[in-house]
């Protein structure tokens, strides 16, 4: 007997147990340093676990970035909430923060002992480069998912230039870019619906 998909009841997202959320976010919290958190999270949540689609993750990442607070924690809260409700948000947030908290306490103790050595500063510069590379990788993956849509790419580039190159304050630039971004997204989705 052939199953029909009811358009009013889309298929549910893949099930994520609280245990698997805990394991995934503990791994993410322990392995992602620098600015590459979004790239590591995308790899774990979308590519490896299949818990979210590219589009859902991109929307989640956007919301996490515009909300106040640390982006990785916002991402963990929102993904946990989306996949398992309030318990999922609590588990994902705890698992994301616990490894970083532990590592920061340990590294601050070690850094106090080793800060006089120039090699220590070389290692930290190397870690910063890894974080930058991870962030750029995530940016390129995101750009590829836009499938040649010129206007969103131009907005992203203009924000990058204003904040990264011209050193304008981040908050006013982000707030100024929200209205045109929402309008462009609306117009593009409307064009898709009408073919």
Describe this structure in words.
It is a single chain. The protein has 195 residues and is an all-alpha fold. It has seven helices and no strands. It has helices spanning 18-31, 37-48, 54-66, 71-114, 118-145, 150-165, 170-193. The chain is globular. Residues 1-11 have low confidence and may be disordered.
Radius of gyration equals 19 Å
Percentage beta strand: under 5%
Query: Structural class given helices, strands, pairing?
Result: mainly alpha
Count every helix, treating DSSP H or I runs of 4 or more residues as helices. Answer: 7
Uncertain segments are 1-11
Counted beta strands: 0
Helix content: over 70%
N/C terminus separation: 33 Å
Question: Summary?
Answer:
By secondary structure, this protein is mainly alpha-helical. The protein has helices spanning 18-31, 37-48, 54-66, 71-114, 118-145, 150-165, 170-193.
Task: Please write out the topology.
Blueprint: H1 18-31, H2 37-48, H3 54-66, H4 71-114, H5 118-145, H6 150-165, H7 170-193
Core attributes:
mainly alpha; 77% helix; 195 residues
